[in-house]
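Page 47, continued from p. 46.
Same chain as before, 261 aa.
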Amino acid sequence: MNNNLPFQCAFSRSWAISSWLLLALFQWPALAWTACDDPPARRVNWLRCDQQGADLQGVDLREAVLTQANLSGANLSGARLGGADLGQAVLSKANFTGAELRGTRLVSAQLDHAVFANASMAGARLERAVLIGANLREADLTDAQLHRAELTGADLTGAKLNRANLAQANLTNAQLTNADLSGAMLIRAVLEDAVLTGSLLRGARLDGAILLSVDFTGADLGQATLAEARIDGARFTDAKLDSTIWINRQRCRPGSVGECQ
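Result:
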């Protein structure tokens, strides 16, 4: 008879429990080290934390974990958030004026009426983000991902959106005066009643887009593609249509202005 059997069984159970705890720790590090009371710092983990109305002006939150955090009404003007994860975060009316958000992840974030004036957001991920009534004046969104983003009534005056992906985005009533959308992807986007006066859309893809009553006065649509787009009521006064692919897939003559010839 093995008198050490009870001891061996207890040891095995203890070892198994310890191994499971270690495995859980490595598999869910974000949950293990979340600390909502930690001060703002680079790589801080505020997963699901409530930081409503927090004053985070100019702080360094690069590579921070802010997933599903509540930062509505927070002051993040001038903050550095490059590489941070704010996926599904609540950021309604938050102030990001002049903030640095290059490569920041904001997928499905709630950003209605947030302020991003003059913010640096090149390469940011904003797929399915809600930006209703947001202020993005003069923001740099070069190469940003805005696929299926909700931008109804957003102010993008003077914004840089060159090569941005806005496919299937909703830009109804959006203000895009003097915005740079050269090379942007706007396939099947909705821009009904949007204002794009003086905007740069050279080489942009607007195939299948809803462009009802859009104001393109003075815009540059040279080499852009509007195949099968809906343009009822749209205004193209003085718009450059140099080699533009029109809604019927006809290529406009070089030098066309105001109408596709």
